[in-house]
Design goal:
Elements: H1 17-34, H2 42-61
Helix pairs in contact: 1-2
Length: about 60
């Protein structure tokens, strides 16, 4: 799991938690819309969206 509140030594990147939440919200809503707006999968959509955004952020900010 990625710690979004810590700084990376080399680039001093601090991830904005508010921006992260907004990105997850938008991705989860997109999943809801793709299902035709049928409810009942809120938690599943949120957790999938959160995982996807974390993976993207790890890729963007991972220092090799």
């Amino acid at each position: 799991m990625i710690d979004f509140n810590s700084e990376q030594e080399s680039n001093k990147v601090v991830f904005d938690e508010g921006k992260f939440r907004k990105m997850v919200t938008e991705r989860a809503y997109s999943k809801f819309r793709k299902r035709g707006g049928i409810g009942g999968h809120d938690m599943e959509d949120w957790l999938e969206a959160e995982s996807e955004i974390k993976k993207q952020c790890f890729y963007w900010f991972h220092d090799e």
